[in-house]
Amino acid sequence: MSRERDTDLKAGLEQALEMISVPESLFQFAEELPGKFDRGELALDGNPKIESQPIVSIRSKRRKIPVVFKGTAVAVILVVTFFAGVTISPAFASLFRGVPGIDIAIDWLKHIREQDGVQTAMNHDYIPIDPVTMKIDGTIITISDIYLTEEELLFKSFIQTDAFDITDGSSPVSIWISPTNTLAGQGTTTSSSVIPTADSSGKPVLQETYKYQLSDGVVKQFLAQGTELELEVTKRTVTDEGRNLDIQQMGTIKVSIQPDKLLHNKVLEPKQALPVGDFDLKELSLEKVTIQPTTMNLILKGPEGWYYEFPRDDETAPYLKDDQGREYRYDPSGSGLLYYEGGKLQLPFSSSVYFEPNVRSLTLHIGSLQVGEFKPSEKLELPLNGEFPRTIHFKNKEIVIEGADYVPEGYLHLKIKKDSPKQKRLKGVSFGIVEGENITEKFNKVGTETYDAYRKKQREDMKSFHVNGFGIAEDYSKSDYLNVYIPAPKLNQYTLTLSRTGDSITVNRDYTVSLMP
């Protein structure tokens, strides 16, 4: 590089930026800056100041690296690195331009990162693994915000494509990304959004956040064998009214994992009882708390034979709050259900207290949950020519069967008394019959074609009966009673079963967990 070129650039910048003070060699400064950034030697605190003196390593007690910088020094950085042709690393560039390969709006990216904990990690100098971009047949895919912990693989995908309309949430076509080598694990997307581009193309970007739960020892094994992560990209198309899935291989994205990017989790096993106050589900147990750089995971344990679920997007969803007053939202993968053996369930939360040494406790708030039993807990004989109405006491409910008959389409039909004329559904209870438990197996054994025809008929029957499912008491046709339809052979007498299913419990309790050893 020439001294004359530096002098000319410096003069032009000073005039354009109202005579600010800048280094003598801007090109040298720009070339050194990304390396200092990636090595954690540079502190940029939102309004940095550059003096007319040699650049030195600056350290502060707490360094914050925001996505969008302010101040005259940043203007110099942007001009030099983006218009002077200086080569910079993808990790450094991604903080300015969103993600490499796709020019997305920075404010959208910052909002997403603040939601999922990536921004908090970056503010504490825990920069993600370098992003990678793949281009194939009119599709651009960038994998960014990659973090690997001892329990999870987290990353975001950014997709521009001509293969399908990414703004159509009901599109039968989707692109799926999953690890293929030793880091394979249970996982799915936790969030999805369509982001506007910052360029003039007008092509939107589909952003999805992935979380893969990894088994014990998998990460250690992966790092011992090599540090190249393979992500398989497939295009998936739902066909035949949702019954079949066509999977097409699009390619493989390889990501280099730096071992020094792996921070060790903070793990506690409090074995703490969480009273719930339900007559069946007396309490849950908090078995484990895992604090990671971007997320926190709680493992709860319930009684054998029961399942329990938490609401995700309403005001009764669980949340964590630290003793400094900061809240952390419940952010489950996919449907939110990640069950382990023995009634254990994972509750994941976005962002983390990992970098906050002064936090001494967390408080878990449970607003409500739904519970259900895996097997029926009540049986009774029900002859079709018996006396009606018939009253049944099940759990804390009084259920009145006003009548029963057999529908020629192949169903036992029950008429359940309403609690009020406007009642639409009997919540928390499902019905079945002992003889009917083998009907699905019967059709499944005779071949796919016959079984598919049977399932198609069931969907058509539900529509004609005006119900959302079999075995539940509903009325959406302004009937005088609630209707239950149960697939069954024609018999004179049935053994009716009742199960507690999806029953909502209001808890509204706080449980404080100490983080101190």
From TrEMBL:
Keywords, sorted A to Z: Membrane, Transmembrane, Transmembrane helix
Entry annotated with the keyword Membrane: yes
TM stretches of this protein: 67-88
Protein name per the record: DUF4179 domain-containing protein
Naturally occurring in which organism (per UniProt): Paenibacillus lutimineralis
